Q: What sequence folds into this?
């Protein structure tokens, strides 16, 4: 019997974990090891993947992977209860505090002025970035789904000038499963920070301590920060911190990063252990009495076998021994052991496997989890079910329910669009537009009154005020859209969408995790491309990156709003939603094409943690809105201002720099004239439209500013093109090449060749789609 | 050219100067997402870590 055969709500005990390679190691690292009790929470609405609960947290697995896990069913009352150890009173050891661990003033402190480097390491979604922001006063974005941080970030601890703390992407173990996990492992292994701040989500302590145990093996001073302690105690749980310190041999500090509680104590400990290089007091977690001591003897034998090699290679011995036993090829290569030693290693490991009755990886993982179980039994009193878990369970009944999940998702996205384009965003847009119009009239009068030169007058009113002003008026729509996307992300809903949509996306050759970059793509393509780093396979990453430009980013909103206002004012939301659906539909078709051609094969397994729902914090949301507005205004007054001035100049002068009476004689008209025939079949054979589209490559918003400048003299765009041509233009704008910033990020992730491919491919798809729209329109007699 | 023209030209030149400096800094810092004054590590567009703040 496998996990796939277990029904919703039933529990089972793991007998063996099949499969091979990185996925199997990842499953073991996530705590799916023989002997673990697993409860099947629910199957996704489409029957796949499955949500399971183990070690007090929720994980998703595809049925194909669940099929590799052999289990035996257990009834509710035979589910293993946590072992309770007799209560003991532990003195606070004071590790990492002046004068307790070593006599005050003694110890081998690093010379003053030495830069104390720290790595901030922890599981995904454990609150590292929140702590980083508290420690450094920085304002990095935080979210509520696994994998918000995809790259390292550095900062100085507030008030401690000789410090440098690096926030690393979340990892579950030191066996990296995805590319951003590799960033974290390489940092700890190669850059050897002076200290590690290990952030442990105390509400999910078992799985988090797994990484802690591997960090303790790194022979680097560690301080453990028990984060979300407020949530734990608020739900009636507690942690015997002194006992945990004694068992782990490192300072343990309870904190709440979000509330800035315990952070200063954490800093004191971190500085001290780094300055005095107080390494973990305990690294030996294998128990000589457990299962005949098979793992214990094996591990110590291998430690002796590779000790000299590990020292030479600069690797921590215990860590290297564990990895050598697990068969990690990177570490074995780094150790440089000869054939004879490799054979000895293999014999020792085989003997351990025989005695322990588990394969090597499972045996090592089991050894760690056994120790963690002892630590938790002695130190942690967990609430039966926290408020957050109860709330998540109740919400999930609807949000991931069999019959409700997909309608709710469509409803939520529809509501976001409706509120953005018809209610909130539209209201503020009208308000801002009126303000800008009033200002333009005032400026116009003032310039006329002052008798300003006509050319200068034209530049300021028809160029800058019309161009930049038209773009700024769309700020509310963009900010509102980002506001809703941030609410969805911070609440933890996006992770559920990934769970619900996995089966559907798999049909397109993608994994459920790809939904996260794709949804972010509706905000901005640049972070969407960046966030693909959380995808564990190169194939999935490439395919997702190539599909993100099909998701309509918020920078294109001004273009849609501009045309919709001019041509379809009565059907605003309908046209907007239609455009979004069209982009998704074309994205799906292209994904199917990719699946059959460029990216044949299957998407990687979907193993993802489902975080509890949390209320987004006002601070986080407001900060995001402020930064988004600031960023937008900076672009409006830099790139778009310059583009507007250049376009105004080129359309106002001819090649002899004479002011033209008719802009058809201008430099711009002549140059754009070369490209115009290409757009004629789309009904867009107007040099002004071509110019605006070309300028859109710099920044999408500038399409509107250029159109505003070029069409202002001739009664606006509605007098120049038909409604069908306008829709054709909308479709082209929806799909054609993303802006230069997005292309730069694609180039960084995939290289120049792929970036060029995206530019050409998106233009070709956009052209074909716009042509089809126009032909269809003519066919049904709209033209 | 009157005094008002002159004032406007100076203001315009200043605006263009600051806009170009902003664009140049963006290019120089390699921050495609448009952070002013070079890369600070806080990236509003990215809503996440600025990808360019690598050593």
A:
């Amino acid at each position: 019997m496998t996990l796939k055969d277990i029904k919703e709500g039933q529990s089972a005990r793991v007998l063996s974990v099949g499969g091979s390679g990185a996925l199997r190691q990842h499953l073991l690292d996530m705590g799916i090891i023989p002997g673990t009790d697993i409860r099947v929470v629910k199957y996704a609405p489409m029957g796949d993947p499955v949500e399971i609960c183990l070690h007090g947290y929720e994980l998703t697995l595809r049925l194909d992977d669940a099929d590799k896990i052999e289990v035996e069913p257990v009834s509710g009352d035979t589910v293993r209860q946590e072992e309770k150890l007799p209560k003991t009173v532990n003195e606070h050891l004071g590790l990492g505090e002046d004068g307790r661990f070593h006599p005050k003033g003694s110890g081998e402190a690093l010379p003053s002025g030495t830069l104390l480097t720290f790595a901030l390491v922890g599981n995904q979604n454990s609150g590292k970035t929140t702590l980083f922001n508290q420690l450094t006063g920085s304002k990095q974005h935080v979210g509520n789904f696994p994998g918000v941080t995809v790259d390292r970030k550095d900062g100085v601890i507030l008030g401690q000038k000789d410090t440098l703390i690096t926030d690393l992407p979340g990892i579950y173990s030191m066996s990296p499963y995805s590319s951003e996990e590799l960033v974290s492992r390489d940092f700890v292994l190669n850059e050897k920070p002076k200290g590690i701040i290990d952030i442990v989500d105390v509400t999910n302590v078992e799985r988090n301590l797994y990484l802690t145990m591997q960090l303790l093996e790194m022979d680097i001073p560690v301080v453990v920060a028990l984060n979300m302690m407020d949530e734990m105690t608020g739900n009636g749980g507690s942690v015997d911190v002194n006992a945990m310190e004694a068992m782990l041999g490192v300072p343990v500090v309870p904190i709440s990063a979000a509330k800035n509680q315990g952070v200063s104590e954490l800093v004191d400990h971190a500085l001290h252990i780094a300055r005095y290089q107080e390494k973990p007091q305990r690294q030996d977690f294998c128990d000589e009495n457990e299962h005949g001591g098979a793992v214990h003897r094996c591990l110590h034998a291998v430690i002796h076998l590779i000790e000299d090699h590990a020292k030479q290679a600069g690797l921590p011995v215990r860590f290297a021994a564990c990895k050598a036993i697990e068969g990690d090829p990177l570490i074995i290569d780094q150790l440089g052991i000869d054939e004879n030693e490799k054979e000895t290693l293999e014999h020792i490991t085989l003997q351990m496997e025989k005695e322990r009755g588990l394969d090597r990886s499972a045996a090592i993982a089991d050894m760690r989890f056994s120790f963690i179980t002892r630590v938790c039994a002695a130190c942690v009193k967990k609430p039966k079910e926290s408020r957050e878990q109860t709330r998540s369970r109740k919400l999930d009944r609807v949000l991931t329910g069999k019959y409700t999940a997909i309608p709710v998702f469509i409803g939520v996205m529809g509501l976001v669009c409706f509120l953005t384009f018809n209610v909130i965003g539209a209201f503020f847009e009208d308000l801002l537009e009126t303000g800008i119009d009033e200002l333009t009239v005032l400026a116009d009068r003032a310039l006329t009154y002052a008798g300003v030169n006509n050319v200068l007058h034209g530049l300021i009113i028809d160029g800058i005020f019309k161009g930049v002003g038209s773009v700024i008026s769309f700020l509310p729509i963009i900010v509102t859209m980002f506001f809703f996307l941030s609410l969805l992300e911070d609440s933890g809903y996006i992770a559920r969408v990934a769970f619900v949509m996995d089966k559907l996306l798999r049909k397109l050759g993608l994994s459920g995790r790809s939904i996260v970059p794709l949804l972010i793509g509706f905000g901005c393509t640049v972070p969407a491309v960046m966030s693909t780093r959380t995808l564990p396979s190169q194939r999935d990453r490439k395919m997702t990156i190539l599909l993100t430009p099909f998701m309509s980013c918020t920078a294109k909103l001004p273009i849609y709003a501009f045309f919709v206002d001019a041509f379809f004012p009565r059907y605003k939301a309908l046209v907007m939603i239609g455009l979004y659906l069209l982009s998704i539909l074309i994205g799906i078709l292209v994904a199917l094409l990719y699946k059959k051609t460029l990216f044949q094969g299957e998407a990687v397994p979907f193993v993802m943690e489902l975080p509890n729902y949390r209320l987004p914090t006002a601070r986080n949301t407001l900060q995001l809105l402020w930064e988004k507005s600031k960023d937008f205004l900076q672009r409006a007054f830099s790139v778009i201002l310059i583009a507007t001035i250049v376009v105004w100049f080129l359309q106002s002068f001819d090649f002899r720099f004479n002011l033209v009476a008719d802009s058809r004689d201008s430099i711009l008209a002549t140059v754009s004239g070369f490209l115009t025939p290409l757009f004629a079949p789309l009904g867009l054979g107007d040099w002004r439209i071509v110019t605006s589209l070309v300028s859109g490559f710099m920044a999408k918003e500038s399409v509107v500013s250029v159109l505003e400048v070029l069409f202002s003299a001739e009664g606006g765009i509605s007098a120049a093109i038909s409604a069908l041509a306008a829709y054709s233009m909308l479709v082209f704008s929806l799909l054609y090449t993303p802006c230069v910033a997005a292309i730069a990020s694609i180039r960084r992730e995939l290289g120049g060749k792929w970036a060029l491919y995206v530019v050409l491919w998106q233009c070709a798809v956009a052209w074909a789609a716009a042509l089809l729209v126009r032909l269809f329109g003519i066919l049904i007699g709209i033209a | 050219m009157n005094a008002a023209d002159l004032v406007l030209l100076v203001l315009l030149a200043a605006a263009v100067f600051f806009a170009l400096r902003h664009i140049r800094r963006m290019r120089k810092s390699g921050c495609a997402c448009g952070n002013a004054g070079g890369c600070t590590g806080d990236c509003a567009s990215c809503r996440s870590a600025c990808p360019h703040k690598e050593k």
Summary: Chain A touches chain B through 50 residues (CB under 8 Å).
